[in-house]
Amino acid sequence: MKFSSLFLLIVISTFIYNTVAAQITVDLKQQGKPLQPLWAHFGYDEPNYTYMKDGKKLLSEIAALSPVPVYVRCHNLLTTGDGTAALKWGSTNAYTEDEKGNPVYDWHIVDSIFDTYIQRGMKPLAEIGFMPEALSTHPQPYRHYWKPGVKYDSIYTGWAYPPNDYKKWGELVYQWVKHSILRYGEAEVKSWLWEVWNEPNISYWKGTEEEYFMIYDYAADAVKRALPAARVGGPATTGPGWDKAAAWLKDFLLHCAEGKNYATGKKGAPLDFISFHAKGSPKVVDGHVQMNMSPQVNDVAKGFEIVNASSYKRLPIYITECDPEGCAACGMATNPENAYRNGTLYSSYTASSFARIYDLAARYKVNLAGLTNWSFEFENQKWFDGFRDLATNGIDKPVLNVFRMYGLMQGNKIIVENTNQIPLDSILKNSVHGSSADIHALAGADKNTAAIMVWNYYDADVLNEASPVTVTIKNIPAKKILLQHYRIDKDHSNAYEAWKQMGSPQNITDEQYKQLEQAGQLQLLNSPEWLNTANGEAVIHFSLPRQAVSLLRLTYQ
């Protein structure tokens, strides 16, 4: 009898523990600083996808979801080649030389890329790289033919080496900026960002640290000579959480502040913003994917710490790649740990990780200006092949709808009270591996709207019961509000699940395409409804499945 009573008590206690409502409170009077649109930054390796069919479609959708101009960053803008698109590859043929070694500039492919952005009201985050074949100290082999499953290091060919003539390198950058001014106007180009190279602390740069400082100095000097008001920065190093990477970032900042400039001979180098990268580390555990946010947020924290200890603590910081792991073109067939990318694990991870980076920026009091989601699309690939992309064959994945949700959040950041949240320090140490999921929220409000994004995130891609959530909004300046409840879960805003219900076809009919296109859009959980407030307060109850994201959008007069 005692055993039965104890067993019943355990069952009841477990049920209560698993179903206790997450109590989230948002007081609209507790407003902080403006909720910066850090998320309005995207990037990818393959520049030639930009002006292709699905590339243009996706860029149009990204531009449409944002109330502010979106910044777009891509590799290979100076790489030599005929513009053929391939995985981890792209080219523009911007620089070649004639038989006498004189520079020949050809901007038509670069123009096709930037025209596509400008036509949509987007801004280039112009990555100055990679090394043209005619300038490379080790030009052969140059073009690589990497594909998933092939050794990753095979991509690092002649484009990754220092220039054989630094003055020609500087002149190339100068001519690029001058051409951009002639084509788009000085006012437009002043609004861009110019970033020198990508991840020079790893094999993307086959020179030394000092040689990177040299290409930086010549490039930054060239940008400023062409347009003194232009913004230039770097070093776009990856993984500040690693000791060697941290040293690289510190050395670069010290060089810009106090070192001898290789281009001018003067002290220091121009630096208008600081950039670095932060990545997570998923793996397969017991047959399922288990994410790991800890390395990513620790990279961010360490980067902030380094900046605060430098002469540049006030400068804008751009995390120009901010992702769950490091290889967008490595699909789940060759890298099973990347199977998170098609469904809601990716979208909930993004909601949770970006919100925690907002918190880190506040903790370190840094000027964080952007988080670049390094995912775009891959033309002419299999449907839902597990690439880190926002859309597949023109059909949006659930993760893109997180950014649509962010696009609906404006105004000032609102303090969120949530006694059941996982503390930031715990996520820095252990990610979300423990017994509890990360059910938390990010909120913002302006004069006539408020938006609360709520997610139910857990590292392990395993099924679990939905959790009850109660959101209390206080000090609403209206007696009546219109509530729109948007949702990303298995049944909403999820083209991947719709595709699987079709039988996972690789040959899609026109009718199926239309159905998937609709399923890929951000959807309401239920019809919009008017709610009466009581003493300026509204209480909203709902159930939130594991790996789901909700956006509560309140409109009032």
What would you note in describing this structure?
GO terms for molecular function: hydrolase activity, hydrolyzing O-glycosyl compounds. Keywords: Glycosidase, Hydrolase, Signal. This is Beta-xylosidase. InterPro entries: GH, GH39_cat, Glyco_hydro_39, Glycosyl_Hydrolase_39. Belongs to the glycosyl hydrolase 39 family. This protein is of the alpha/beta class. The chain has two domains: 154 residues, Immunoglobulin-like (Sandwich); 372 residues, Glycosidases (TIM Barrel, Alpha-Beta Barrel). It is built from 13 helices and 24 strands. The strands form five sheets. Strands 1, 16, 17, 18, 19, 20, 21, 22, 23 and 24 form a ten-stranded mixed sheet that branches. An eight-stranded parallel beta barrel has the order 2-3-6-7-8-9-12-13, surrounded by five helices. A two-stranded antiparallel sheet has the order 4-5. A hairpin with a 2-residue loop joins strand 14 and strand 15. Helix 7 runs parallel beside helix 8 and helix 8 runs parallel beside helix 9. The longest helix is centred in the middle third of the chain and has 21 residues. It is globular. The termini are far apart. The N terminus is likely disordered.
